[in-house]
Amino acid sequence: MKRRGYIALMLAALMGSAGLGVGGYFWSVGHVRRWTGRPELGYVGCNHCHFVSLEKMPWSHPRPRHAAPAGLAVTPDGTRLFVALDDRDELAEADTATRKITRRVAVAGGPFGLALDPTGERLYVVCRDADRVAVLDTRDLRELDSIEVGTAPVSIAFGRTPAGDRLVVANSMSDNVSVLSVAPLEELARREAGREPYAVALAADASVAYVANRLAIPADYLSRPDAELTLIDPAGGRILARHPLISAHLSEGVAVVPHRGWALTPLIQVRNLVPITQVVQGWVMSTGLAVSQGRDAVTQVPLDEANAFFADPAAIVVDPAGQRAYVVSAGSDAVSVVDLDKLGHWLAHADAATRQDAIHDLSLAAEYVVARIPTGRNPRHAALSPDGRALFVSERLEDRVLVVDTASLQPLGHIVLGDGGAADPIRRGERVFTKAAHTFQNQFSCRSCHPDGHVDGLSYDFDGDGIGDNLLDNRTLQGVGKTEPFKWIGKNPSLEVQCGPRFARVLMRTDPIPPADLKDLTAYLESLPPPRWERKQQLELTPAQERGRRLFFATVTPAGQPIPRDRQCHTCHRPPLFTNRLLSSVGTKAPTDATDQFDAPHLLGIAHSAPYLHDGRAKTLEELWTIYQTNDLHGVSSYWSKHMLNDLIEYLKTL
Ligand code: HEC
Ligand code: HEC
Ligand code: HEC
């Protein structure tokens, strides 16, 4: 009897919880219908809309900080090397003879780029996270002065013009260049550059500053993307010329060649509109060098060979004699040595048509690339001693600077800054992310398309279904953690699937990334925060942004018309991530698309990831509701005036 009673109780409990379960299921379905305004979704996990907070995101947790070298500067007497350590908010000084660290000081705000004045007395430090230039006295490394510049400055150059000493600063996130006078320290001009100005070099007579921009300027749908080399007059800050770099991006360096009047810009020649199945033919991307001779003539020549690619060119330096250029390859861990006499000879004898097609001719590099020097992981910056005898290369993901003897091209040793961080899964994951060795013949790395985990601003033809079909706009990985499903069509449930089998099949054409590396890679991706999220949280909205915010959360029009739940922005772009992680149809299906259901993208940092929509058809945020306005399917916008649209965009920029 006792036993029977027990069974009856168990049965009742089971049935009760099943009933609750069924009831719970129906409640949930009804609840989701109510809050999405859509009938067809069925059961959706509660955490799509609840229990989400920015503080709980993996990227908001503290992470280990590394002594990763960024910008380098050698003193005019060649005895000391300064190294910017952005991740640690530090600056290190090393003795170039002993290769030992002599001093370390704190410099607030992510010191990234360095420039010395010709006397070696003043060191100018651009701090990427604090939007400032700090002036340091090189005797005691004390900070003497500081000035605000544009957003996320990464590079700085000093020049002595007839009008006075000048500093030219590349502001990578505000897409402009600051021209500063030195005495007094003042901003004279701020000029629009291309997209993501990243490197600056001045002609020897300081008559022109060359600014390399990292990304291509958003192009019309299905048109060729071009980057820009911006030429600025350092004395007055005028724009002198804008040289298009054809089908190019990821220019992270620029150098002026003494005695020849050239500027050299490493670049990736990208063929994003060609189906990516052409990897094996080397037709996805390759590395090149843009040679600017005078104001108009730019020739793009290859740095790769038919069977060996040197992915992700970063810095470039040229020796004082103007005879050799050294280009570091951040993805292939190598320095390419270019003989400029040989390059000059080739240029002098090639006709216009040959020059125009040169970049595609992978047999050409043998004419002028005379050596490849292996380096440690992820070389990103470089500097030469004033006599050109020693080359310093920052091995960013090893926490070291490699010193090379340029006569023998042999390593002399290392300046060790940190322990390499191999115990940190995030650091290990970044190594996987930046390494080209995972792709066929080292052609590219994740970073080639996602520099700093961000976008390259390009749309790719990932399928082999014909040229121009199913283009897919790149997606930012900054803030991607916990926003599954992934891909525009939401097909991938986890980062492991996204970056493992999918990447291997479509892009690498080699073996998939091993499981342990994949785990580290995921840790790295999840550690990437949306740009400046903490600071943005603290900013107060301007009146225009506040009006835009009210539009975003509007449930009725000013005329009193209710806006259906499934067309209110905040239903799909639900704070705090500004996504409900569900697929929706917002009327954006193109004739070439297989589906009209797309993943609601999170909107944190949205201002920086143009172009927009799954195929990148919208060049700007405005175009979403002007050119590509979809009959009120993507939010109700037909009642907006031009001013209301402007307000909404101003609000979106604060996310
Ligand atoms: C598609 C988004 C979405 C999903 C999924 C969702 N909710 Fe909600 N829920 C909301 C919204 C919107 C509200 C209104 C209050 C708010 O904005 O938080 C809400 C409110 C609630 C409330 C307060 C009472 C009410 O109905 O207003 C409870 C309780 C709740 N949700 C529980 C759940 C549970 C449990 C689940 C999982 C089964 C779930 N929700 C899934 C969007 C969602
Ligand atoms: C050739 C350029 C290219 C390369 C190389 C590349 N990606 Fe992507 N990535 C893209 C594009 C384009 C998309 C959007 C594709 C889609 O949605 O179907 C994307 C999407 C993603 C997403 C999904 C983001 C989201 O919000 O859904 C992740 C994660 C990602 N990439 C990680 C990586 C990693 C890790 C690597 C290296 C193993 C890598 N990517 C290499 C171009 C590239
Ligand atoms: C029904 C759900 C839904 C509603 C309502 C909605 N969106 Fe979207 N939103 C999406 C989807 C899905 C996409 C991706 C569409 C595509 O790529 O074709 C998107 C794309 C976007 C993008 C471009 C993101 C990128 O990375 O390219 C922005 C910006 C945006 N929405 C803002 C808004 C605003 C502002 C509103 C209100 C006026 C709004 N959305 C209303 C679902 C929605």
Through-space gap between termini: 66 Å
Largest sheet entry: 5 strands, antiparallel
Catalogue the unreliable spans.
none
Using the coordinates above, name the CATH class of the domain at 72-420: Mainly Beta
Hetero compounds: heme C
How does the overall form come out from the CA principal axes? globular
CATH architecture of the domain at 72-420: 7 Propeller
SS content category: alpha+beta
CATH topology of the domain at 72-420: Methylamine Dehydrogenase, Chain H
The CATH superfamily of the domain at 72-420 is known as YVTN repeat-like/Quinoprotein amine dehydrogenase
> What's the gyration radius in Å?
27 Å
| Count of β-strands | 33
What fraction strand? 25-35%
Describe the 3D structure:
This protein has a domain at 72-420: Methylamine Dehydrogenase, Chain H (7 Propeller). Helices cover 19% and strands 29% of the residues. Strands 17, 18, 19, 20 and 21 form a 5-stranded antiparallel β-sheet that branches. Helix 4 crosses helix 8 and helix 10 (543-552) crosses helix 13 (642-652). The radius of gyration is 27 Å and the shape is globular. Bound molecules: heme C (HEC) (3 copies). One heme C binds next to helix 1.
Characteristics of this structure?
655 residues, alpha+beta, Methylamine Dehydrogenase, Chain H, 5-stranded antiparallel beta sheet, 4-stranded antiparallel beta sheet, 13 helices, 29% strand, globular, binds heme C
Helices and strands in order:
Elements: H1 2-36, E1 72-74, E2 80-85, E3 90-95, E4 100-106, E5 111-116, E6 122-127, E7 132-137, E8 142-148, E9 153-161, E10 164-171, E11 176-181, E12 186-192, E13 195-202, E14 209-215, E15 227-232, E16 239-245, E17 248-249, E18 255-257, E19 262-270, E20 285-293, E21 297-302, E22 313-318, E23 324-329, E24 334-339, H2 340-349, H3 352-357, E25 369-374, E26 379-384, E27 390-395, E28 400-405, E29 410-416, H4 425-434, H5 446-449, E30 459-461, E31 471-473, H6 495-499, H7 501-508, H8 515-526, H9 533-538, H10 543-552, H11 569-572, E32 583-584, E33 598-599, H12 621-625, H13 642-652
Helix pairs in contact: 4-8, 10-13
The protein binds heme C (3 copies).
